[in-house]
Design brief:
The chain is an alpha+beta fold. It has twelve helices and twelve strands.
Length: 408
């Protein structure tokens, strides 16, 4: 990896002349605003992707399996030295500024989004890495509160920026775990490892099958031009810190304890059925989702590899039903998207659809035929708005790369 001494705005403009991608516009805007605020070009720049999980939700914190894809939508941070111990962050996405000092260990503070950055910086401080004060401008094309892991994108982009600043790369696994700890300790969300791992380790034209216990990863090809991944944002924002996420984790821990296994990853459906009378019905359903979802995720990875799109679709619909009925993390808006997708069906170009992410709002993900994307997008938009009185946001994403520094 080569670190450039200056992020050149003229070169950024030239790049935009060749391509109109939202990420390039985001990079240019962040650099341009930095120049206007600080009267100099930023010295460092980094970006990291959000993610969409094709299947395997609420399995990661149960030591299970997940199959995410790095989005081609990213969070960008450009920065330059402040000349002192002060860090100043200006977020263009929400229009807020945060400031704090590196003179002591960084603590939580306001505004709340700054804690994702503060937590990563604190992680670098704990490693005794030589940080300096800096000014930064942030911008993101990852939808906020949509279940596409805008938080992990911010954390990983921050870590990648700090690597560029100190000219030292962390081990990718340690980097992802440092970002996960930042979310636990500074944002108050006890997330699993999936979001940070895919944001660090994403690979263009591939999904990532992740074993959340062993942390082993396997790339799964996703480059068939005849199919697309369509993300449908219900525009009902979810909040994982509202308590339901923590309740689900506690319920899974209770189920594992009742089944006398370290985690639900170690349980089987046979074990669960044998313990039906000893387990509370609610805890039983939570466990049934996790056990069945692990099985679906491993089968889906094989189906993606072989291009068996109909099978992938069946598994996606089964996953949504389990998340809706057993895990109870869906909502009427997400269910509406899935029902509309099912009504369109394979003949209309939709192979499968499911909610994705933590739930209670956010996004659904669908596997669709490329040739029919326009018609599908129009139908979903019209039907969803008619059913919910909400205008959804839809976009197609290819499998993108993980975090990177941005070169001039």
């Amino acid at each position: 990896m080569v670190y450039k001494s200056n992020f050149n705005i003229a070169n950024a403009k030239a790049a935009i002349a060749k391509s109109k991608s939202s990420n390039q516009r985001s990079e240019f805007r962040a650099a341009d605003i930095f120049l206007k605020i600080y009267n100099e070009n930023p010295r460092w720049a980094a970006s990291a992707p959000g993610r969409v999980n094709l299947i395997g939700d609420h399995t990661d914190y149960n030591d299970g399996f997940v199959l995410p894809m790095a989005l081609d939508r990213r969070t960008t941070i450009v920065a330059g030295p402040s000349g002192d111990k002060k860090v100043t962050l200006h977020d263009l996405t929400v229009g807020e500024t945060a400031s704090f000092s590196l003179g002591a260990k960084v603590t939580c503070g306001e505004p709340p989004w700054s804690n994702y950055v503060r937590g990563v910086i604190a992680g670098f401080q704990n490693l005794n890495l030589p940080l300096v004060g800096f000014n930064a401008v942030l911008h993101s094309t990852v939808p906020l509160g949509g279940g596409l892991s805008s938080s992990a994108a911010l954390e990983v982009a921050t870590a990648t920026l700090l690597e560029a600043m100190i000219r030292q790369k962390l081990d990718p696994v340690k980097k992802a775990l440092l970002c996960q700890k930042a979310e636990h300790d500074y944002a108050g969300v006890r997330c699993g490892i999936m979001d940070q791992f895919i944001s660090v380790m994403g690979h263009k034209n591939h999904l990532l099958l992740l074993d959340c216990r062993t942390r082993e990863t396997k790339l799964v090809a996703m480059s068939d031009p005849s199919v697309e991944v369509l993300i449908v944002n219900t525009n009902l924002r979810h909040k994982l810190t509202d308590g339901e996420y923590g309740k689900r984790r506690a319920q899974c821990e209770a189920a594992a304890s009742a089944l006398k296994v370290p985690a639900l990853r170690d349980a089987t459906m046979k074990m669960l059925k044998a313990a039906t009378r000893q387990i509370d019905p609610l805890i039983f359903r939570r466990a049934r989702h996790v056990i069945s979802e692990n099985s679906r995720t491993k089968r889906a990875a094989k189906s993606f590899s072989s291009g068996d799109w109909r099978k992938v679709g069946e598994l996606m619909y089964a996953s949504h039903a389990s998340l809706r009925d057993d895990y109870e993390v869906s909502c009427p808006e997400l269910d509406a998207v899935v029902e509309i997708a099912q009504a369109i069906g394979v003949t209309g170009g939709v192979m499968g659809c499911r909610m994705t992410g933590g739930g209670f709002g956010g996004c659904a993900v669908a596997l669709v035929k490329t040739a029919q994307v326009e018609a599908i997008t129009r139908r979903v938009t019209e039907d969803y708005q008619q059913r919910t009185n909400i205008i959804p946001t839809l976009f197609v994403s290819c499998a993108g790369d993980g975090a990177t520094t941005i070169k001039s």
